[in-house]
Structure formats: C-alpha cells, structure tokens
Write a structure and sequence with these properties.
The protein is α/β, with parallel strands linked by helices. A four-stranded parallel sheet has the order 2-1-3-4, sandwiched between helices. It is globular.
C-alpha cells in the first residue's frame, strides 16, 4: 500500500480521460503545498458535499473517497446531504454555499448513458448551474459528477474523480484567499 493517501492509493495513479492533462502535472510536487496542515486563514477549510442517491452503489464510494481525501489535505467535511439525482444537486449546493461557515462545495454523482439523450441534458444543466452558483456565491464548487455517456463499468473506473473535485476546491480556495 502506498503511504501518500488514505487507503494507500497513490494520488499519482489515475489519469483523467479526455481532459488533456495528466494528474502528475496537476498535483505533482504541489501536493505538499496543497495540504492545510496548519490552520489556514485562522481556521480549517470547511467543505460541504452533495451526493446523488441515483447509482448510490457508485456515488457512496465517491463520498468515502472525497471525505478521506479532504482529511488527507487537511480540510474538514462539515456538511453532507444526499439528493435524489444529479439534476437535484444544484439546489442543495446552493443551500450549502449560503451557509456562512462553508468555504466550498463538492458535487458527487454518476450520470450513466441511457437509451435517450437524457444523460446529456441532466449533466449539461447540472454542471452549468453549479458553475453559476460558484460565480454567484463567490465560493468554489467541485464538479465530481461523472458522465454523460458512460457505462456502469466506466462509472466504477471514475470513482476517484471525487478526489479530483476535492482537490480542485481546496486549491481554488487557497489560491483565491491570496488575492
């Protein structure tokens, strides 16, 4: 088992498919600078997680990995809420973002391909609304929703994207605090 992350999984193993960058370049030597080992800005960073119940066999594992990775980075998950599906995530994210003590939100879900284009509609609207919320509330929102157009096997292979969403909000929160 690797010693770098909870559960022994090295943070250098997974490479996002089709995003045009490698995890090594994103994390690489910066991982030590990303950790909130000391109190940052007077207190630890506080994260809220919203997870879809649809395909919960997959999203529950995403939640576990997100929580463990937040702890590894020195951030604290203080709020957690489930919603029926990915389309419902933005409303819960808005409630969490409006809380004074929440610094960022991570959205977790899996949008699998169906017989129609429904998966593309769900993913498009949910991701767009999450971007809008981040801009409106001036707080980072991590997109840990995988899909659309993926099979169950592909969704299982992308469970670690939850860790990427946590890293994104921690990194963005830290960088924005410097401005």
């Amino acid at each position: 088992m690797g010693k770098d992350t909870p559960g022994g999984v090295s943070h250098f193993q997974a490479k996002p498919v089709g995003l045009g960058f490698s995890r090594e370049r994103t994390l690489g030597k910066d991982i030590d600078n990303l950790r909130f080992d000391q109190k940052y800005g007077g207190r630890m960073m506080k994260i809220g997680i919203v997870a879809a119940e649809f395909h919960y066999d997959i999203t529950s594992m995403m939640v576990e990995r997100a929580r463990a990775h937040a702890e590894f980075l020195g951030a604290e998950v203080t709020e957690f809420i489930t919603v029926p599906g990915c389309y419902d995530i933005p409303l819960a994210a808005k409630k969490l973002l409006s809380m004074k003590d929440i610094d960022a939100v991570v959205a977790l879900g899996a949008v699998l391909e169906g017989e129609t284009g429904h998966d593309e509609v769900v993913m498009g609207h949910a991701s767009r609304k999450l971007i809008d919320l981040s801009l409106d509330m001036n707080k980072p929102v991590g997109l840990g929703i995988t899909g659309p157009g993926m099979s169950r096997l592909q969704a299982e292979e992308r469970i670690d994207r939850a860790k990427s969403a946590v890293e994104a909000v921690v990194k963005l929160h830290k960088n924005l605090a410097k401005l």
